[in-house]
Amino acid sequence: MFIPFENLPEESKIWIYQSSRKFSEEEVTAIATDLSEFLTNWSSHGTLLESSFQIKYNRFIIIAVNQEVQPATGCSIDASVAFIQNLEQKYSVDLLDKMNVAFKQGEFVTYKTLLDFKKLAKEKSVSENTIVFNNLVNTIAEFNEGWEIPASESWHSRFF
């Protein structure tokens, strides 16, 4: 059951999928339509999941589910991953590789491999103050408070 993102409680579980490239406006519109259709029918053990999504910076897909109404379980999570894999194929992007880092350079979001980010840190091209995206957050509350943070406040700090 798709509902507006802002109507979900802060304890709602989230999954963040980071794209290997920026989506065009047309792609964002199409992805939003596909996500709305998927989430409208997304269920766990026959019960519709109260869920929503956001697309941020034309690069991040955030899916959220209210676990208080009905928790997402193995089969429903598998269905969402299959949906994301279909998006990967449809748009020729990588959304599931966790070994990449996205960070801000001014107003732009840059995407690098973890090895390249470590190299940039060593060369001082990025610093502890660089805004990074902590895709390990688990709830909407954590997302709101700790998704876009200085590298020094995230797991990225080990590179400095």
Summarize the helices and strands and which ones pair or pack.
Layout: E1 13-18, H1 25-41, E2 43-44, E3 47-48, E4 51-56, E5 60-65, H2 74-91, E6 100-105, E7 108-113, H3 114-122, E8 131-133, H4 140-146, E9 148-150
What does this structure look like?
This protein is α+β, with helices and mostly antiparallel strands and 160 residues long. The chain has helices spanning 25-41, 74-91, 114-122, 140-146; strands at residues 13-18, 43-44, 47-48, 51-56, 60-65, 100-105, 108-113, 131-133, 148-150. The strands form four sheets. A three-stranded antiparallel sheet has the order 1-5-4, with helices on one face. It starts with 12 loop residues before the first strand and ends in a 10-residue tail after the last strand. The mean pLDDT is 95.
Can you give the mean pLDDT? 95
Helix amount, in percent? Answer: 25-40%
Strand order of the largest sheet: 1-5-4
Instruction: Count all strands and give the number.
Output: 9
Uncertain residue segments: none
Report, as a whole number of angstroms, the end-to-end distance. Answer: 43 Å
Can you write the helix and strand succession as a string?
EHEEEEHEEHEHE
Strand content: 25-35%
- Coarse shape: globular
Structural class of the helices, strands and pairings?
A: alpha+beta
**Radius of gyration over all CA atoms, rounded:** 16 Å
Compute the number of helices. 4
Main sheet summary: 3 strands, antiparallel
